[in-house]
TrEMBL record:
Keywords: NAD, NADP, Oxidoreductase, Pyridine nucleotide biosynthesis. GO terms for biological process: NAD+ biosynthetic process. Residues 52-165 form the Aspartate/homoserine dehydrogenase NAD-binding domain. Residues 212-299 form the Aspartate dehydrogenase domain. HAMAP family: NadX. Pathway: Cofactor biosynthesis; NAD(+) biosynthesis; iminoaspartate from L-aspartate (dehydrogenase route): step 1/1. This is L-aspartate dehydrogenase. GO terms for molecular function: aspartate dehydrogenase [NAD(P)+] activity; NAD binding; NADP binding; oxidoreductase activity, acting on the CH-NH2 group of donors, NAD or NADP as acceptor. Specifically catalyzes the NAD or NADP-dependent dehydrogenation of L-aspartate to iminoaspartate. It comes from Anaerotruncus colihominis DSM 17241.
Length: 311
């Protein structure tokens, strides 16, 4: 059971509010609860589980036990197989979950997804129904309007939130404000990546990309882009959801031989504002598709959630 002192001077224990003015037996009851709390509970750290222990999930899990350790406890990691998270969990001193059920049994405050859009579709609603907030890196899963609405409804039903970190880009705040000013605003996203960062995407249908010349490999809506390049343009879907939606956001994907950074340029324009938001960042050494910045955007989001100042 968790107990904490609210600012008005009221102790809250589970769902029971107990007035500060209570004395005698009631007070000793409160005091006993306090003394039975673990150190972590006394500090009221938020409890987090991570899905995915690849390039980005590893950075997030390490940060939870490192720079975020004063605010958060890493409960455990869920991998693609029960074996996958065993080693990282051992190193970080948390659980290696064998199933989603095991993760949910821990009742985390937040579940961070860094596993892919299939995992979002497979687990998202169940995580929310269990009362955990969800932080999604595979934002592309939300391009599908029907799925997005059903996940939103699942969150509302359980009074939970779905957090969309800025990922490998920035400026989602300005796009959201611009959309409020003018619903007919325009957004175009240009993604530039080295050929090996695009390899294996269903949209290439096995085509080998040139290692000598730049080529436009995709041009269309963000909705089509994420279907064709599901591991490359989550950023475009995030930009689209901040603005005019995946069907109305234009995306171009360019293969650039020799390019060391993943580069994303978002052009937004409404009646009175014009923005160019360019982010170039190094990919993760173990996964050339993903910029490490995306993992740090989750770390930053978690830090923000624990801060009295909200960005
Ligand atoms: N929002 C943004 O700006 C960005 C989002 N992303 C997205 O973030 C996600 C994570 O990226 P990254 O860490 O680089 O990817 P990785 O491929 O490096 O890691 C993902 C890990 O999750 C595992 N996995 C797959 N399915 C499941 C599942 N159902 N449950 C648990 N684990 C699973 C994978 O295992 P296996 O390899 O065996 O499948 C893999 O180990 C990707 O979807 C990526 O597209 C990436 C960059 C930017
Ligand atoms: O990490 C990046 O540069 C972008 C990315 O893969 C994505 O948006 O899916």
């Amino acid at each position: 059971m968790k107990a904490r002192l609210l600012s008005g001077g009221t102790w809250i224990c589970g769902k029971t509010n107990i007035s500060k003015r209570l004395t005698g037996p009631q007070f000793s009851f409160i005091f006993t609860i306090q003394n039975n709390l673990s150190k972590e509970d006394k500090e009221m750290k938020k409890r987090v589980s991570v899905i995915g222990c690849g390039a980005l999930g590893s950075i997030i899990a390490q940060s939870l036990t490192g720079m975020l350790r004063e605010q958060y406890i890493l409960l455990g990691i869920l991998g693609a197989t029960p074996q996958e998270p065993i080693k990282p969990a051992e190193e970080l001193g948390c659980k290696a979950y064998g199933s989603l059920e095991a993760l949910l049994a821990d009742t985390p405050d937040y579940v961070v997804e860094a596993a892919g859009s299939d995992a979002v579709r497979q687990y998202g609603a169940r995580i929310l129904a269990a009362g955990s907030n969800l932080i999604l890196l595979s934002v592309g899963a939300l391009a599908d309007e029907t799925f997005r609405h059903s996940l939103g409804q699942a969150a509302e039903k359980c009074d939970c939130k779905i957090y969309l970190p800025s990922g490998a880009i920035g400026g989602l705040d300005v796009l959201r404000a611009m959309r409020l000013m003018d619903k007919d605003m325009k957004i175009r996203v240009e993604n530039r990546k080295a050929p090996h960062s695009l390899e294996g995407a269903p949209g290439l249908a096995g085509k080998q990309l040139s290692i000598e010349r730049e080529e436009l490999v995709f041009s269309g809506s963000a909705l089509e882009a994420i279907r064709s390049f599901p591991k490359n343009v989550n950023v475009a879907v995030a930009a689209a959801l901040s603005g005019v939606g995946p069907e109305n956001t234009t995306v171009e994907i360019v293969s650039v031989p020799g390019l060391e950074e993943n580069s994303h340029c978002i052009y937004g324009q409404n009646k009175s504002v014009r923005v160019t938001l360019e982010t170039s960042s190094l990919p993760d050494p173990s996964n050339p598709r993903s910029s490490t910045l995306a993992a740090w955007s989750v770390v930053s989001l978690l830090q923000n959630l624990a801060s009295p100042f909200q960005f």
